[in-house]
Amino acid sequence: MDHPSPHVLLFPLPIQSPINSMLQLAELFCLAGLQVTFLNTNHNQKLLLQHTNVESRFRQYPRFRFRTISDGLPVENPRSSVQFGELISSLQAVAEPFLREILLSSSDGVTEPPVTCVIPDGLFYYAVDVGNEIGVPVIPFDTISPCCLWVYLCIPKLIQAGEVPFKGNDLDVLFENVAGMQGLLRRRDFPFYRLIDYATDPYCQIALKEVESIPQSNGLILNTFEDLDGPLLSLIRSHCPQTYAIGPLHLHLKTKLAEKRMPISASSNSLWEEDHSSIQWLDAQPIESVIYVSFGSMATLSKEEILEFWHGLVNSGIRFLWVIRSNLLRGEEWNHQFAKELAEGCKERAYIVSWAPQEEVLAHSAIGGFLTHSGWNSTMESIVQGKPMICWAVYVDQRVTSRFVSEVWKIGVDMKDICDRYIIEKMVKDLMVTNRDEFKKSAEKLSNLAKESVGEGGSSRIGEITMEQGARQPPH
Ligand code: UDX
């Protein structure tokens, strides 16, 4: 019997980090010769086309195409002021019927074959139901950290054991029912640490629905590698045996492009305009003298927290490059005068931009460390470059990841919950000067393992081959 030729539909969460990693995955599929459709929201597609060369980059793959849908919100609504939960449910109202329609349609059969595999973000649990209903395989790509995903998978057990919701206010109590993390995971490291009522908390509810959908899916893709997350991957595989660890994805893609002698430079997937003057500034700084400071694309800080970071960094005497996005300030309109004063007050040893070419920044020889919110992409990008981290985790997976950075991988320190200029100053000095050699050694070791995992015969390459086979499998 003839099987339809494979056609993968990728559908990322409508935010920077998953769009970035899903585009990298899309390109890997293109390199494997698959037909690929990338489903983006109209809003993000406009930003992507405005700030990147993505259109011309993907033109070299004739079997690739973008499709767009509304995110369900009025066009004029500023997305930065919309709650994440609201965005996810408004998008679901549009995406669920769209997926059903596209999977039922057999296409025109002339320009492209019908979709034979869906790769949605792990949070789009409903895509698994739609695929199962129609008989099209669904392999979610979970773009958060695997250590957090494992905690999600344990939440039903934690609820059953009475560990969640918390009884009492002590955030240093250790969890007993998260296998593999006994003696490690405290309440303050829990993704929903402010949780009062798990039955009504929208984020926790989405996570629980995702947990239910994982065993119903045809596999799971994770942006990690066996040498980093091996023990956790074994545990995750007890829920989903076909779990493909194919990361670090950005390095995986670069390695494949290099092997095929294809261009790999200027491959930004940014929704903001990258300020390349940051690289010129770095070019003028001594080797490993600068700490890079960035809190990703969504995390916010209060004005008081921004000032504590500013004073801590300035008082440390270490040079720094800081990304201060226009939506970084929590609960207040962006104040240009405030930003100007911050930049003016530290210009001798620091440089502030509103968005940087992060991969290029982390790869720069002047960078010696990274003060990060512990978003999963930032963490992987830092691991690849062997840069030790100071973690200021804000929410969800960042809270678990930062614990792993400091206590499991030992490639940095975790500030967790105390934003104080004296602590920041001390941590910056420790990371960049006092304990530099120790952190650098463990970060470089992990960086080498990351490189091996995507090299020929590496574990992520084997993961990639089985993942491609999974995506090529015909419907049941
Ligand atoms: C979100 C969540 O906040 C995070 O917890 C989860 O792990 C992934 O989704 P985000 O805040 O976007 O992530 O952070 P992160 O995962 O670190 O991704 C940010 C991406 O933007 C990175 O790929 C980084 O290279 C890029 N970036 C960031 C830039 O290109 N320039 C910048 O100035 C800042």
Automatic annotation (TrEMBL):
Signal peptide annotation: none
Alphabetic keyword roster: Glycosyltransferase, Transferase
EC numbers, comma separated: 2.4.1.-
Transmembrane segments: none
Gene of this entry: LOC107825555
Taxonomic source organism: Nicotiana tabacum (Common tobacco)
UniProt-recorded name of the protein: Glycosyltransferase
Domain of life from the UniProt record: Eukaryota
Any one GO molecular-function label of the UniProt entry: UDP-glucosyltransferase activity
EC class of the enzyme, as a word: transferase
